[in-house]
């Protein structure tokens, strides 16, 4: 008997948690206070069962992935976030890398003839890589491969671009969208609570600015993702506050595709003294996010950050998407000490990972349109990267 066919209230003797289970099983929204209570009192088994119920109500046993690749224009950055192991300050840019437009277009061309659907472009905030630079990049990518979905630039990068170009958010987003920008990734959200954000990332766009950029993208008909950096110096209340602001904006625009919790990693940064969260706490976070963010259609586990085994485990805790093949050498998490030091998986490996978790692997595009169901696909007779 599965969690979808018997009362979830049987999983706990705690009356408050039982009331939450009743709300979840009835399809009703939980409050901020109830979200905090799940963190404080909910066992892993309890929140996992609730999250799996929500996941299966929304998606059954489908688990999505896409075929994408990343381009990281630079790790040189004008900002110095305490949690970041990736960037190098502009004053020390000889320690970093800076790709030219032609070099990035050559990366795109290297995928000619391959069935990738998305290029994901994020990096440091380089003062010489401005609005005009990135408009030209997008236009050249679209000229070469018009059907390739360009998901690019965190709100941190965009905020800097717009301010430097003396453009409003509305003007800047419209210009980039017309140049070929299709959607926004969710990076740069970190944690919205002002006191925590000011301590770990105080010199970049604030919560209101991040939310405004995404709201403006949604108003232009673009979709975006949302993230939260967790497992550092934030409290449970800070986590719920962050998700509450996202849930409120999603009520207003409906423009978010997916929520992606990002685990803090403590290697090679100024917060190396802060211990990382345990796997149990990771799974509890995914589960509670799935329960709380009732208006987000998807919950993604970014496998290069979690590692393959933990990403597979997360499919039992509300997650229905494990991102893509990421066929490159993205360094943002490997430089911070993640399990995946060379984050590349073939389609066959991703499909196998999902099937091992007793889920149905479905390839999607960036907007979650289904491309191919791999449930009964055999790789023995077909060569597929």
Question: Would you mind describing this structure in some detail?
Answer:
- The protein is of the alpha/beta class and 385 residues long.
- 40% of the residues lie in helices and 14% in strands.
- β9, α11 and β10 form a beta-alpha-beta unit.
- α2 packs antiparallel against α11 and α7 crosses α9.
- The C terminus is likely disordered.
Tally the beta strands: 13
Strand order of the largest sheet: 11-1-12-13
Q: Please summarize the sheet with the most strands.
A: 4 strands, mixed
Rg over CA atoms, rounded to whole Å, is 20 Å
Bin the helical content: 40-55%
What percentage of the residues does DSSP assign to strands (E)? 5-15%
Structural topology:
Blueprint: H1 15-25, H2 32-41, H3 44-59, E1 62-66, E2 68-71, E3 76-77, E4 88-89, H4 101-109, E5 118-121, H5 131-144, E6 149-152, H6 155-164, H7 169-179, E7 183-184, H8 194-201, H9 207-219, E8 223-230, H10 236-253, E9 256-263, H11 279-292, E10 298-299, H12 303-306, H13 308-314, E11 321-324, H14 347-356, E12 360-364, E13 370-373
Parallel strand pairs: 1-11, 1-12, 2-5, 3-4, 5-6, 7-8, 8-9, 9-10
Antiparallel strand pairs: 12-13
Give a quick summary of the entry.
By secondary structure, the protein is α/β, with parallel strands linked by helices.
List keywords for this structure.
alpha/beta; 40% helix; 14 helices; disordered C terminus; globular; four-stranded mixed β-sheet; 385 residues
């Amino acid at each position: 008997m599965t969690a979808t066919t018997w009362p979830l209230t049987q999983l706990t003797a705690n009356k408050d948690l039982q009331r939450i289970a009743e709300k979840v099983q009835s399809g009703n929204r939980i409050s901020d206070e109830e979200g905090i209570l799940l963190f404080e009192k909910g066992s892993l088994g309890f929140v996992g069962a609730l999250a799996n119920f929500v996941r299966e109500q929304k998606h059954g046993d489908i688990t999505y992935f896409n075929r994408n690749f990343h381009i990281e224009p630079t790790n040189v950055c004008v900002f110095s976030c305490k949690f970041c192991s990736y960037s190098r300050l502009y004053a020390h840019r000889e320690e970093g890398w800076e790709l030219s437009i032609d070099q990035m277009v050559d990366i795109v061309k290297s995928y000619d003839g391959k069935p990738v659907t998305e290029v994901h472009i994020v990096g440091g905030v380089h003062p010489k890589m401005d609005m005009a630079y990135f408009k030209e990049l997008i236009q050249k990518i679209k000229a070469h491969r018009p059907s390739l979905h360009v998901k690019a630039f965190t709100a941190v990068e965009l905020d800097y671009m717009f301010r430097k170009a003396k453009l409003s958010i509305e003007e800047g987003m419209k210009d980039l969208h017309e140049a070929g920008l299709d959607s926004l990734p969710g990076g740069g959200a970190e944690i919205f609570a002002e006191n925590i954000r000011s301590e770990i990332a105080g010199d970049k766009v604030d919560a209101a600015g991040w939310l405004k950029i995404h709201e403006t993208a949604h108003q232009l008909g673009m979709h975006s993702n949302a993230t939260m950096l967790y497992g550092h110096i934030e409290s449970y209340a800070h986590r719920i506050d962050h998700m509450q602001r996202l849930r409120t904006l999603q009520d207003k625009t409906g423009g978010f595709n997916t929520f992606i919790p990002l685990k803090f990693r403590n290697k090679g940064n100024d917060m190396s003294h802060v211990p990382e969260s345990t796997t149990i706490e990771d799974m509890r976070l995914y589960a509670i996010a799935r329960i709380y963010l009732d208006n987000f259609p998807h919950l993604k586990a970014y496998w290069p950050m979690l590692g393959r085994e933990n990403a597979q485990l997360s499919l039992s805790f509300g997650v229905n998407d494990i991102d893509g093949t990421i066929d490159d050498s993205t360094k943002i998490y490997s430089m911070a000490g993640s399990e995946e030091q060379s984050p590349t998986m073939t389609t066959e490996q991703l499909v196998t990972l999902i099937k091992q978790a007793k889920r149905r692997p479905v390839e999607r595009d960036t907007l979650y349109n289904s491309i191919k169901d791999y449930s009964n696909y055999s790789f023995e007779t077909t060569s597929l990267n």
